[in-house]
Amino acid sequence: MSGLAALWHYFLSLDIIDILLVALDISIVAFVIYKFMMLIKGTRAVQLIKGVVVLVVASLIAERLHLSTINWILSQLRLIIVVALPVVFQPELRRALEQLGRGKFFARPLTVLGAEDTEKLINELVRAVQVLSKNRTGALVVIERETGLNDYIETGIQIDGVVSAELLINIFVPLTPFHDGAAIIRGDRVVAAGCFLPLSESPYLSKQLGTRHRASLGISEISDAVVLVVSEETGAISVAEDGKLTRFLDEKNLTELLQSLLIPQDQTHVNSFWPWRS
User: In the chain, how long is the greatest CA-to-CA distance?
Assistant: First the structure.
Protein backbone atom coordinates (compact mmCIF):
# COMPACT_ATOMS: atom_id res chain seq x y z
CA MET A 1 0.00 0.00 0.00
CA SER A 2 2.98 2.33 0.60
CA GLY A 3 3.71 2.32 -3.14
CA LEU A 4 0.12 3.23 -3.99
CA ALA A 5 0.11 5.89 -1.30
CA ALA A 6 3.30 7.43 -2.68
CA LEU A 7 1.83 7.44 -6.17
CA TRP A 8 -1.35 9.04 -4.88
CA HIS A 9 0.59 11.76 -3.07
CA TYR A 10 2.57 12.38 -6.26
CA PHE A 11 -0.62 12.99 -8.24
CA LEU A 12 -1.97 15.25 -5.50
CA SER A 13 1.19 17.37 -5.71
CA LEU A 14 0.64 18.05 -9.42
CA ASP A 15 -1.22 21.14 -10.53
CA ILE A 16 -3.81 21.15 -13.33
CA ILE A 17 -1.28 22.12 -16.02
CA ASP A 18 1.05 19.24 -15.11
CA ILE A 19 -1.86 16.82 -15.19
CA LEU A 20 -2.94 18.06 -18.64
CA LEU A 21 0.63 17.74 -19.94
CA VAL A 22 0.94 14.18 -18.60
CA ALA A 23 -2.41 13.26 -20.15
CA LEU A 24 -1.33 14.80 -23.47
CA ASP A 25 1.97 12.93 -23.34
CA ILE A 26 0.25 9.60 -22.67
CA SER A 27 -2.36 10.24 -25.37
CA ILE A 28 0.26 11.01 -28.02
CA VAL A 29 2.30 7.91 -27.18
CA ALA A 30 -0.83 5.73 -27.19
CA PHE A 31 -1.93 7.17 -30.56
CA VAL A 32 1.50 6.58 -32.13
CA ILE A 33 1.53 2.99 -30.85
CA TYR A 34 -1.99 2.46 -32.19
CA LYS A 35 -1.08 3.82 -35.65
CA PHE A 36 2.05 1.67 -35.66
CA MET A 37 -0.04 -1.44 -34.90
CA MET A 38 -2.44 -0.51 -37.70
CA LEU A 39 0.54 -0.06 -40.02
CA ILE A 40 2.11 -3.46 -39.35
CA LYS A 41 -1.32 -5.12 -39.42
CA GLY A 42 -1.03 -5.07 -43.20
CA THR A 43 2.29 -6.97 -43.19
CA ARG A 44 3.89 -10.19 -41.97
CA ALA A 45 5.63 -8.20 -39.22
CA VAL A 46 2.78 -9.17 -36.87
CA GLN A 47 4.03 -12.76 -36.77
CA LEU A 48 7.59 -11.55 -36.12
CA ILE A 49 6.43 -9.40 -33.22
CA LYS A 50 4.54 -12.34 -31.75
CA GLY A 51 7.75 -14.37 -31.91
CA VAL A 52 9.66 -11.60 -30.10
CA VAL A 53 6.95 -11.43 -27.39
CA VAL A 54 7.17 -15.21 -26.88
CA LEU A 55 10.96 -14.97 -26.42
CA VAL A 56 10.60 -12.11 -23.92
CA VAL A 57 7.99 -14.00 -21.88
CA ALA A 58 10.10 -17.18 -21.95
CA SER A 59 13.12 -15.16 -20.77
CA LEU A 60 11.18 -13.70 -17.84
CA ILE A 61 9.89 -17.13 -16.81
CA ALA A 62 13.38 -18.66 -17.05
CA GLU A 63 14.80 -15.84 -14.96
CA ARG A 64 12.08 -16.18 -12.32
CA LEU A 65 12.57 -19.98 -12.09
CA HIS A 66 16.38 -19.61 -12.06
CA LEU A 67 16.86 -21.75 -15.18
CA SER A 68 20.39 -20.49 -15.77
CA THR A 69 21.16 -22.38 -18.98
CA ILE A 70 17.92 -21.41 -20.72
CA ASN A 71 18.26 -17.86 -19.42
CA TRP A 72 21.80 -17.61 -20.86
CA ILE A 73 20.64 -18.89 -24.25
CA LEU A 74 17.71 -16.44 -24.32
CA SER A 75 19.97 -13.55 -23.29
CA GLN A 76 22.19 -14.29 -26.30
CA LEU A 77 19.10 -14.39 -28.50
CA ARG A 78 18.02 -11.00 -27.18
CA LEU A 79 21.35 -9.54 -28.31
CA ILE A 80 20.91 -11.07 -31.76
CA ILE A 81 17.32 -9.77 -31.98
CA VAL A 82 18.37 -6.20 -31.13
CA VAL A 83 20.86 -6.29 -34.00
CA ALA A 84 18.51 -8.11 -36.41
CA LEU A 85 15.32 -6.10 -35.81
CA PRO A 86 16.26 -3.12 -38.06
CA VAL A 87 17.08 -5.58 -40.84
CA VAL A 88 13.98 -7.72 -40.37
CA PHE A 89 11.63 -4.73 -40.17
CA GLN A 90 13.32 -2.73 -42.94
CA PRO A 91 10.28 -2.89 -45.29
CA GLU A 92 7.91 -1.81 -42.50
CA LEU A 93 10.20 1.03 -41.38
CA ARG A 94 10.55 2.21 -44.98
CA ARG A 95 6.78 2.08 -45.50
CA ALA A 96 6.16 3.99 -42.26
CA LEU A 97 8.53 6.79 -43.28
CA GLU A 98 7.00 6.93 -46.77
CA GLN A 99 3.46 7.14 -45.40
CA LEU A 100 4.53 9.78 -42.89
CA GLY A 101 6.07 11.82 -45.71
CA ARG A 102 2.93 11.45 -47.85
CA GLY A 103 0.65 12.30 -44.95
CA LYS A 104 -0.96 8.85 -44.95
CA PHE A 105 0.18 7.87 -41.46
CA PHE A 106 -3.09 9.22 -40.06
CA ALA A 107 -5.31 7.36 -42.53
CA ARG A 108 -8.25 5.39 -41.23
CA PRO A 109 -7.72 1.66 -40.59
CA LEU A 110 -9.28 -1.01 -42.76
CA THR A 111 -12.72 -2.36 -41.96
CA VAL A 112 -13.77 -5.99 -41.76
CA LEU A 113 -16.64 -7.31 -43.87
CA GLY A 114 -19.79 -8.62 -42.26
CA ALA A 115 -21.42 -11.93 -43.14
CA GLU A 116 -23.83 -10.41 -45.66
CA ASP A 117 -21.08 -8.52 -47.49
CA THR A 118 -18.89 -11.63 -47.46
CA GLU A 119 -21.70 -13.64 -49.05
CA LYS A 120 -21.96 -11.02 -51.78
CA LEU A 121 -18.20 -11.16 -52.30
CA ILE A 122 -18.31 -14.95 -52.62
CA ASN A 123 -21.13 -14.76 -55.16
CA GLU A 124 -19.16 -12.31 -57.31
CA LEU A 125 -16.03 -14.49 -57.10
CA VAL A 126 -17.91 -17.64 -58.06
CA ARG A 127 -19.61 -15.88 -60.99
CA ALA A 128 -16.28 -14.57 -62.24
CA VAL A 129 -14.35 -17.84 -62.07
CA GLN A 130 -17.22 -19.72 -63.73
CA VAL A 131 -16.97 -17.44 -66.77
CA LEU A 132 -13.17 -17.57 -66.74
CA SER A 133 -13.24 -21.34 -66.50
CA LYS A 134 -15.73 -21.67 -69.36
CA ASN A 135 -13.52 -19.48 -71.57
CA ARG A 136 -10.33 -21.18 -70.32
CA THR A 137 -8.89 -17.87 -69.23
CA GLY A 138 -6.12 -18.21 -66.66
CA ALA A 139 -6.69 -16.31 -63.43
CA LEU A 140 -5.14 -15.90 -59.99
CA VAL A 141 -7.17 -14.14 -57.28
CA VAL A 142 -5.84 -13.69 -53.73
CA ILE A 143 -8.24 -12.92 -50.87
CA GLU A 144 -6.46 -11.31 -47.94
CA ARG A 145 -7.46 -12.34 -44.42
CA GLU A 146 -5.56 -11.69 -41.16
CA THR A 147 -2.03 -11.68 -42.61
CA GLY A 148 -1.47 -8.49 -44.58
CA LEU A 149 -0.18 -8.64 -48.16
CA ASN A 150 1.09 -5.10 -48.63
CA ASP A 151 4.52 -6.34 -49.73
CA TYR A 152 2.91 -8.07 -52.73
CA ILE A 153 0.31 -5.39 -53.39
CA GLU A 154 3.15 -2.94 -54.02
CA THR A 155 4.48 -5.15 -56.84
CA GLY A 156 1.29 -4.65 -58.88
CA ILE A 157 -0.81 -1.77 -60.15
CA GLN A 158 -3.21 -0.07 -57.75
CA ILE A 159 -6.90 -0.42 -58.68
CA ASP A 160 -9.03 0.04 -55.53
CA GLY A 161 -12.25 -1.01 -57.23
CA VAL A 162 -15.29 -2.69 -55.71
CA VAL A 163 -15.22 -6.43 -56.37
CA SER A 164 -17.53 -7.54 -59.15
CA ALA A 165 -17.55 -10.45 -61.55
CA GLU A 166 -17.26 -8.08 -64.50
CA LEU A 167 -14.19 -6.34 -63.06
CA LEU A 168 -12.40 -9.62 -62.36
CA ILE A 169 -13.20 -11.00 -65.80
CA ASN A 170 -11.81 -7.89 -67.46
CA ILE A 171 -8.65 -7.97 -65.34
CA PHE A 172 -7.69 -11.38 -66.73
CA VAL A 173 -8.41 -10.73 -70.40
CA PRO A 174 -5.52 -12.37 -72.31
CA LEU A 175 -2.67 -10.23 -73.63
CA THR A 176 -3.35 -7.42 -71.15
CA PRO A 177 -0.86 -6.12 -68.55
CA PHE A 178 -2.83 -7.74 -65.69
CA HIS A 179 -3.31 -11.17 -67.23
CA ASP A 180 -0.20 -12.94 -65.95
CA GLY A 181 -0.22 -11.43 -62.45
CA ALA A 182 -2.44 -11.88 -59.41
CA ALA A 183 -5.37 -9.75 -58.33
CA ILE A 184 -5.42 -9.12 -54.57
CA ILE A 185 -8.69 -8.50 -52.74
CA ARG A 186 -8.91 -6.77 -49.38
CA GLY A 187 -12.37 -6.55 -47.90
CA ASP A 188 -14.77 -5.89 -50.76
CA ARG A 189 -12.25 -4.16 -53.03
CA VAL A 190 -9.69 -5.26 -55.59
CA VAL A 191 -6.74 -3.26 -54.26
CA ALA A 192 -4.23 -4.22 -56.97
CA ALA A 193 -3.72 -6.44 -60.01
CA GLY A 194 -0.72 -7.71 -61.91
CA CYS A 195 0.95 -8.57 -58.60
CA PHE A 196 3.91 -10.94 -58.31
CA LEU A 197 3.66 -13.77 -55.78
CA PRO A 198 6.33 -16.08 -54.34
CA LEU A 199 6.43 -19.58 -55.84
CA SER A 200 6.15 -22.65 -53.67
CA GLU A 201 9.43 -24.52 -53.28
CA SER A 202 7.83 -27.76 -52.16
CA PRO A 203 9.49 -30.77 -53.87
CA TYR A 204 6.28 -32.79 -53.64
CA LEU A 205 4.21 -30.78 -56.11
CA SER A 206 2.89 -32.45 -59.22
CA LYS A 207 4.78 -31.67 -62.41
CA GLN A 208 1.41 -30.88 -63.99
CA LEU A 209 1.03 -27.73 -61.89
CA GLY A 210 2.03 -24.53 -63.65
CA THR A 211 3.29 -21.20 -62.39
CA ARG A 212 -0.15 -19.97 -61.28
CA HIS A 213 -0.73 -22.99 -59.07
CA ARG A 214 2.77 -22.79 -57.60
CA ALA A 215 2.27 -19.09 -56.90
CA SER A 216 -1.07 -19.77 -55.21
CA LEU A 217 0.55 -22.38 -52.96
CA GLY A 218 3.51 -20.11 -52.32
CA ILE A 219 1.43 -17.22 -50.97
CA SER A 220 -0.81 -19.59 -48.99
CA GLU A 221 2.26 -21.13 -47.31
CA ILE A 222 3.46 -17.81 -45.88
CA SER A 223 0.06 -16.24 -45.12
CA ASP A 224 -3.53 -17.18 -44.31
CA ALA A 225 -4.80 -15.91 -47.68
CA VAL A 226 -7.35 -17.84 -49.72
CA VAL A 227 -6.35 -18.10 -53.39
CA LEU A 228 -8.54 -18.88 -56.40
CA VAL A 229 -6.85 -20.34 -59.48
CA VAL A 230 -8.28 -20.95 -62.94
CA SER A 231 -6.15 -23.11 -65.21
CA GLU A 232 -5.51 -21.65 -68.65
CA GLU A 233 -4.99 -25.12 -70.16
CA THR A 234 -7.96 -27.01 -68.74
CA GLY A 235 -10.22 -24.35 -67.19
CA ALA A 236 -10.15 -26.27 -63.90
CA ILE A 237 -10.92 -24.23 -60.77
CA SER A 238 -8.73 -24.69 -57.68
CA VAL A 239 -8.46 -23.12 -54.23
CA ALA A 240 -5.20 -22.87 -52.28
CA GLU A 241 -5.22 -22.35 -48.52
CA ASP A 242 -2.65 -23.12 -45.82
CA GLY A 243 -0.30 -24.71 -48.35
CA LYS A 244 -2.97 -27.11 -49.62
CA LEU A 245 -4.55 -27.11 -53.08
CA THR A 246 -8.13 -28.26 -53.68
CA ARG A 247 -8.63 -28.85 -57.41
CA PHE A 248 -11.46 -29.47 -59.90
CA LEU A 249 -14.16 -27.60 -58.00
CA ASP A 250 -17.61 -27.09 -59.47
CA GLU A 251 -19.85 -24.13 -58.64
CA LYS A 252 -21.53 -25.73 -55.62
CA ASN A 253 -18.33 -27.08 -54.04
CA LEU A 254 -16.50 -23.82 -54.66
CA THR A 255 -19.24 -21.79 -52.99
CA GLU A 256 -19.34 -24.08 -49.96
CA LEU A 257 -15.56 -24.07 -49.62
CA LEU A 258 -15.32 -20.28 -49.79
CA GLN A 259 -18.13 -19.92 -47.26
CA SER A 260 -16.33 -22.23 -44.83
CA LEU A 261 -13.06 -20.32 -45.24
CA LEU A 262 -14.26 -16.72 -45.34
CA ILE A 263 -17.34 -16.63 -43.09
CA PRO A 264 -16.74 -17.07 -39.32
CA GLN A 265 -18.33 -20.22 -37.93
CA ASP A 266 -20.49 -18.36 -35.41
CA GLN A 267 -21.99 -16.22 -38.18
CA THR A 268 -22.46 -19.31 -40.35
CA HIS A 269 -24.50 -20.98 -37.62
CA VAL A 270 -26.70 -17.90 -37.20
CA ASN A 271 -27.30 -17.58 -40.94
CA SER A 272 -28.15 -21.27 -41.29
CA PHE A 273 -30.52 -21.18 -38.30
CA TRP A 274 -32.83 -18.37 -39.46
CA PRO A 275 -33.54 -19.78 -42.93
CA TRP A 276 -34.55 -23.03 -41.22
CA ARG A 277 -36.89 -21.07 -38.95
CA SER A 278 -38.48 -19.34 -41.93
Answer: 78
- Count Cβ atoms below 10 Å from residue 53 Cβ, excluding itself: 10
Last residue of a domain, one of 45, 72, 102: 102
CB-facing half-sphere around the CA of 82: CA atoms within 13 A: 7
pLDDT tens sequence across 110-139: 446 788 899 999 999 999 999 999 999 999
Sheet containing strand 139-143, edge to edge, reads: 157-162, 189-195, 182-186, 139-143, 226-230, 237-241, 244-246
Side-chain half-sphere CA neighbours of 93 within 13 A: 6
Instruction: Indicate the pTM of the whole model.
Output: 0.64
CB atoms within 10 A of CB 130: 18
Q: How far apart are CA 265 and CA 88, in angstroms?
A: 35
Classify residue 277: in a domain, yes or no: no
